[in-house]
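#random but structural
TW: two for the price of one
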Amino acid sequence: MIILLNSIPVNINKVLVYSLFISFFILTACSRIEKTYYPDGNEKTILSYKGKKLDGKCTWFYPGGQKQMEAIYKKDALHGLNKRWYANGFISSEENYSENLKDGLARYFDENGKIIREVSYLRDTLNGESKDYHANGRIKIQANYTMGQFDGQWFFYSETGQKVGESLFKNGNGFQRGYYPNGKLKREITYMNSLKDGTESWYRADGTKEKELIFKNGELIREVNF
């Protein structure tokens, strides 16, 4: 039996292009882990890739071997929980990301691992409740933001838990008041667009006015002492 090769129409160029395309697709879709090391052999980074882009959990280390940062990536963008540590091993921060932007709850800690701040982000902008803490764990400032602007009622507390100030804002406009331990007014500040704007008045403990600071768009223009 005789087989005629030219009776089978095959386009060699198309087959070659198709094969190269499949090979490229497999290469770019392939997940892999890459590691780097310090001169002493300790791990420096453990990075997850899909093709040529960071994708998955990635970890960085201090020279001594402690974790420095751990992040989740998706197509080269931060997407998920990002953690950082101090060199002493205590947690430094926990931030949530979406497409490389902070999104959701973020928490920050001091070098002893005690929480110092909790805030919420929406598309990399402060949005929602915010809390700052004293070293003893008590709330220092309880605040609120709406798309980066001061908003709602704020409260300020001493280390013993006594309220020492309050603010009321709407879309960045409002006032802040500070008080002496006996409850008398110590300071009053006006804000526009979340910046000091107008007169900031300071009072002595006996109730007499001590000074006035005049602000415009957050900049000090003039100071008047009494």
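TW: number two ↓
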Amino acid sequence: MPNILRSVIILVIILSFAAGCGERMTKEQMFALAEKYETEDSYESAMKTYSKIVKKFPDSEMADQAQYKIAYIYSNNLNDFEKSVESHKLLLEKYPESKYAVQSLFMIGFIYANNIQDLDKAREYYKKFLETYPESELVSSVQWELDHLGQDINEIEFLNREDDAQKEGVAK
């Protein structure tokens, strides 16, 4: 009888261990799951999964992308611009060499200017962008944003001329 009991205990331990290992996902599997949640508009689940990637695999090549996706979801899907800015700042802090750092720094300025309406912060981050990434393809966009900071889109002269030209073309 003791041998049967011991065998059962060992079998239970092995099965428990195997079940525990089966629940562990690779960073690639987790990322695919997060993207699936995103396509299903399950943004909270997507962000939780992206956050797990950042937490469990902070030094992986996917952690910075997961952090960027969190910031993206906050701004584009949940309209929580403060949290989006925080998430972009976290990316810059944790992954300053990331290929997503350029976009994150731009987005901080953009969100401050266009969503939060904090023009001083927008100016600060746009200037920081120009100092940090003077060779970026986004420089002209940043400079345009700085030049038109705080202006209503209807106040920008060349845009009005383009609208007038389009209206005239339609009228003909």
